[in-house]
């Protein structure tokens, strides 16, 4: 690698500021005691959307649509009067993926408009997007959560140490967005809506400025994905980042894992999960560990991503078997490929570990599809991981289904408790092994020059 510039050294030093003494210490999975202090600094409703920055929003959206079974449901581009950026929304249930790419600023200037005046996402910045792409490639720019009041959430966050990215901006009379920096070049975006005509969301098509796209009746896409379960970030050091996010959100520690809990003899990581009051907005973060035989996968990510960022998105399926059958059918024809499956011995022991939850036929299907199964004291987790979605070994997708933990709200409506079944602690070693094998295929081949006489 080349020498670091002074700016790069300064940025790295800022990222590695130690946490104040006594404020943060991982105790490991066995010693961690889960408590919920209901300490959010603002009212959180749910994950609202994830925005990807890319150089070509059209093709990125089409690839994810085909690979994940998400319908193109709304757009903002030249055809809608947006001369600043092209943005396409994919939707499946409550899961919303937004893909945005910049237009040339000359387009707006030629129409005697300021480059940002027609943007449907007012926080979009062309220069920042191009710099983001140069450093990270295709990646997640914003994790958006719907809150009761975006302006209040922004004010509370900044008052408690959040680094502001964009102050509150009204999109119309009913919607507001604001942003604070999360980690690296990723922002936490707050979205709120004022009720209109007794509707909690006055713009069901997503956000003001977006126009609906009519769904194809001849070729509908739906593989069963329903919502974002959690969004995982990779950071150089966990302590300062956890303290930073906890302080401005009020989110509480939901789970944690150390290298002793989840690593292998080859590599490892430390991880901690932060959660909102209702534990439906989950933000895990990982850091690399050093001194192992192989470089930690987290360190590999940080190098290829040129810094911290979103490592993977866990998507909740209502039927993981159907979802995986559809996704695997398309793996070699424009869809997503998956990490190597665990060995047959893993599934021979599965009946003893989950035979009370899964039928023999489902266990067989888990083996056929490569699904991993884990459980905690509350429920069961079925999960599988794709290979990285782009050229770099960075961002990937996790498909999950949680079984159990069904509760009832005040109105008697059934819902599933957040984080039911955990985060796959029992599968980490198998996942690490598959990633290690995958990374070996990416290692640079050394070409030996022929000896001269």
Automatic annotation (TrEMBL):
Fe cation binds at residues 230, 312, 398. One of its GO terms (biological process) is L-tyrosine catabolic process. It catalyses: 3-(4-hydroxyphenyl)pyruvate + O2 = homogentisate + CO2. It is found in: Cytoplasm. CDD domains: HPPD_C_like, HPPD_N_like. GO terms for cellular component: cytoplasm. Its main location: cytoplasm. Binds 1 Fe cation per subunit. Keywords: Cytoplasm, Dioxygenase, Iron, Metal-binding, Oxidoreductase, Phenylalanine catabolism, Pyruvate, Repeat, Tyrosine catabolism. Pathway: Amino-acid degradation; L-phenylalanine degradation; acetoacetate and fumarate from L-phenylalanine: step 3/6; Cofactor biosynthesis; prenylquinone biosynthesis. GO terms for molecular function: 4-hydroxyphenylpyruvate dioxygenase activity; metal ion binding. SUPFAM superfamilies: Glyoxalase/Bleomycin resistance protein/Dihydroxybiphenyl dioxygenase. Gene3D superfamilies: 2,3-Dihydroxybiphenyl 1,2-Dioxygenase, domain 1. It comes from the Eukaryota. PANTHER family: 4-HYDROXYPHENYLPYRUVATE DIOXYGENASE. This is 4-hydroxyphenylpyruvate dioxygenase. The lineage of its organism: Eukaryota, Viridiplantae, Streptophyta, Embryophyta, Tracheophyta.
């Amino acid at each position: 690698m080349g020498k670091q510039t002074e700016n790069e050294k300064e940025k790295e030093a800022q990222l590695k500021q130690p946490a104040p003494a006594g404020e943060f210490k991982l105790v490991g999975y066995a010693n961690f005691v889960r408590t919920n202090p209901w300490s959010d600094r603002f009212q959180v409703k749910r994950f609202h959307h994830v925005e990807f920055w890319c150089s070509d929003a059209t093709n990125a959206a089409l690839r994810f649509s085909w690979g994940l079974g998400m319908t193109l449901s709304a757009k903002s581009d030249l055809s809608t009067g947006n001369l600043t950026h092209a943005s396409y929304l994919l939707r499946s249930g409550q899961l919303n993926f937004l893909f945005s790419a910049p237009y040339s600023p000359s387009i707006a200037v030629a129409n005697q408009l300021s480059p940002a005046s027609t943007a449907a996402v007012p926080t979009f910045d062309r220069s920042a997007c191009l710099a983001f792409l140069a450093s990270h490639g295709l990646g997640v720019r914003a994790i958006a959560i719907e809150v009761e009041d975006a302006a209040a959430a922004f004010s509370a966050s900044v008052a408690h140490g959040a680094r502001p990215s964009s102050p509150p901006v009204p999109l119309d009379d009913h919607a507001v967005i604001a942003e604070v920096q999360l980690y690296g070049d990723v922002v936490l975006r707050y979205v709120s809506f004022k009720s209109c005509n007794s509707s909690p969301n006055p713009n069901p098509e997503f956000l003001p400025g977006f126009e609906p796209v009519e769904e194809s009746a001849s070729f509908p896409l739906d593989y069963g994905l329903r919502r974002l379960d959690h969004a995982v970030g990779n950071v150089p050091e966990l302590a300062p980042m956890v303290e930073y996010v906890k302080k401005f959100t009020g989110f509480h520690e939901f789970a944690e894992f150390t290298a002793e809990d989840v690593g292998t003899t080859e590599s490892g990581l430390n991880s901690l999960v932060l959660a909102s009051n209702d534990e439906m907005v989950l933000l895990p973060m990982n850091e690399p560990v050093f001194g192992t035989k192989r470089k930690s996968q987290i360190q590999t990510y940080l190098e290829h991503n040129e810094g911290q960022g979103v490592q993977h998105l866990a998507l909740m399926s209502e039927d993981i078997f159907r979802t995986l059958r559809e996704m695997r059918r398309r793996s070699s024809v424009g869809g997503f490929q998956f990490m190597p499956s665990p060995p047959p011995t893993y599934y021979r022991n599965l009946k003893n570990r989950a035979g009370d939850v899964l039928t023999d036929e489902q266990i067989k299907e888990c083996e056929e599809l490569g699904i991993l199964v884990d459980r905690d004291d509350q429920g069961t987790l079925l999960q599988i991981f794709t290979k990285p979605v782009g050229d770099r070994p960075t961002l990937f997708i996790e498909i999950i289904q949680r079984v159990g933990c069904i509760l009832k709200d005040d109105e008697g409506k059934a819902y599933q408790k957040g984080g039911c079944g955990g985060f796959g602690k029992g599968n980490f070693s198998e996942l690490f092994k598959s990633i290690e094998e995958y990374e070996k295929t990416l290692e640079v081949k050394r070409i030996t020059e022929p000896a001269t006489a």
